[in-house]
User: Fold these one by one.
Assistant:
Number 1:
Amino acid sequence: MPWLQREIEDDRKSRFTNLLKRNTEVGTLGCGLTTSSAGWVAGQAAKAPLPTASPLTLLHDLNIPIVVVGREPIRPEGWHPHGALFAHDPRFFGRHTIGSSSGITRTERTTPSLRRRERELEWRRTHDAVLRSLENQWVVLEGDEIIASGRDPVQVINQAKSSGIMSPYIFFVEPKNENVVTIGL
Amino acid sequence: MVNVEYRYQYEYRYLGDERFPIIQLTITNPADLTQSIDVDAYIDSGAERSIFNGFVIPVIGLELLNGGRKEYSPTAGSAITAYLHRVRFGHPDLGTFDLEVGFSDVQLRRNLLGRDFFNLFQIGFRENQLLYFLDANP
């Protein structure tokens, strides 16, 4: 679903609206509250308590859907760290849902893309000393980061997948022996 | 004189100080495209058929022993038992293709792409330049 991926990327690129900046366009009630002429729901804002819990808990309590991409939740535009929550950005609420529970809407890419792994290959070329310390082990590498390593490849892969890696790149670090020539297997 | 044209050229990949004709492939469960891993595969013209590590199968959501059993016999040493599974391979240049390959019941250091893979693509080697070439037209 490429349209979904574009939405996720657009959402990631969006920036928090500086509440004070937006407040210059509408009447300010102080304490970060505004009137609704710019599309804000003033009543909702007035009722929202000051955030003592985490933002996600607050959004959940207000039954406001949250878009979660990978491991990082995306906070809605208008969130002010010192004031009440402002929500009702139609762009934010116009998300397409794949699955939801407890008010949290999860979106995710469904198929892996085909990657060249150039960064990983370059890392392998330039980090021989690190690889020597991992001889006879399986390694999952993502970019420049070793995600998991060990002697059990299934365990290593599962560890990588639980870290959010959709299609882990795994390889075996063969021991170096100048007196040995490997043919086939 | 025979002329051959290839669309793609790749350098042999470094493993330590050595360089090998290795290609990175995504292996996907054809029945569940969300299940995949990325692996190295050595291009081996000496292998009649491709063989991959058996652990690939369960991590893409398949049962290893459900495949047809096949013995892979090296030029020396004991035969390796593998189970045939049709999986989807993917590469940014070659696209995706389904191929039935053997998945071993023992751990292998290397995955090998054999002549079954060669049957799908045109492959050339220039060992002196540490290059290999591929074209989707077999």
Number 2:
Amino acid sequence: MGSSQLSNKIRRLRFENGEMTQQQLADKAGVTRQTIIAIESGKYTPSLLLAFRIARAFGLSVEEVFGYEGDDL
Amino acid sequence: MNKTQKGAWVSIAMALICIATFGYIYVQLFILRKLPGLTDIWPLATIYCVLLIMPVILMRKKQSPQEVEKDERDRMIEKRAVIAAFVAVWILLFAASLIPRFIVELDGAIPVWSLAFINVGILVIVLLVYSVVVLVQYGWRGKDGK
């Protein structure tokens, strides 16, 4: 489920956005708190739609929230 | 712990009690050679009834309107568990087709009770496989994956 190639800054962004809780972010993104926890710890790779929703919750683009560390094409 | 995890734990409990019940009946019928009476069965029957009521407890009201019951991750976990259970069914059906070979009697007859044991055994094992796969994917932990 998780991917070592996909990183994220969700935890840092939560604290930078008024110390948003995981539950608050989950409510904004339309998922459960467990899913946010799994994404933050790298144990779950969100779908493209969920990645966009999380980024929108912070008012940022997907690239500013998630990072890809794979080989360059 | 979410509903899917709770359901998986309840399913494991019911499957284990089912195994215990059939083990008890087998011992009574074929080892002790006596028919189990109601007084022998009622403790297990009581536990069954309690476990049947458990799903009602699981269907609690939402704590908030925004609370999501199942999201994409939950659906993916359930889908993988269903696939694992489906594979288990095929493996068990193949294994079950070999069992009559070992229990056939001298006149070539297969005991009727064996079919019940095989069918219920497959059901119980598939339920266990589904529940274990669900819990393994969630991480066995009950406290929201931490």
